[in-house]
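Morning F.,

Quick status update on the modeling queue. The single chain you submitted on Monday has been processed. Sequence for confirmation:
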Amino acid sequence: MPLQLITAPTADPIYVGEARAHVKQDITADDPLLSIYLRAAADYAQMQTGRQLVAARYRMTLDSFPGPSLMGVPIGNSFSLPAHAILLDRSPLIQMVAIQYLDMSGALQTMPSSDYTVDASCSPPRITPVFGKIWPISLPQIGAVQVVFDAGYVAPISGNATTDAVSVQGWKTLSVGDVLRLSNSGGALPAPLKERTDYYVQSVISAGVYTLSAASGGAAIDLTDTGSGQSYLGELPNSFRNWMLVRIDSLFNHRGEVAVVKGKLDPLPYVDNLLDPVRVVML
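Structure tokens below.
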């Protein structure tokens, strides 16, 4: 499905300092180059897996709502991808923003969120009308249906040692009592926060700005510094991080199309693959 990036990630999935340490570079002069390799590796990983690493907003365009106007799912199937389901091209899903369509008069309409249900637990995420509803009748014209959603494993955060608040970029709105985990690349979380630890939203200061507690209903955690490197809400799977670091190392240390290995020239097959994320495929 045609997928358009509306709001790009505001941070890289790996901090450039972590990439620098992995390639055993002691100076920062090559950081701009490492950043290019890092983003190329992230693009390729996302294209290969259909996953979104850092939170971003997408618009998926359809010519019409999919499949027949069915209600429910096939009886007896413990899991199915019904013909009338919209399957999102990026996961994990953070939140649905809107389903919009052109009606028969050409006016843009927004489908009420109460008329559809979303299963974000699987990949790809599935959307169908709720039981008793069908997809609206859209204008028979290309690009008549648009699905806007946010996806990603992590979202960048920053800590404020004065207000004891953390600010989150690109994530869904959180409520008091919500449970979350934090992670960091290339440094440390704002002290005394730790990775692999459950925290709770203690208060909502403003949109995307929260104080945290160590227990539900507990006191706000006193932040003593702003942390270092890049901190995130959420956790990036280690398989992505490990693969990206290895790929960055290959790009950084073998910058041409061939490498000299034991006195002979060996091709680097990943070089052409760098174009895969932007390749146009005609079906």
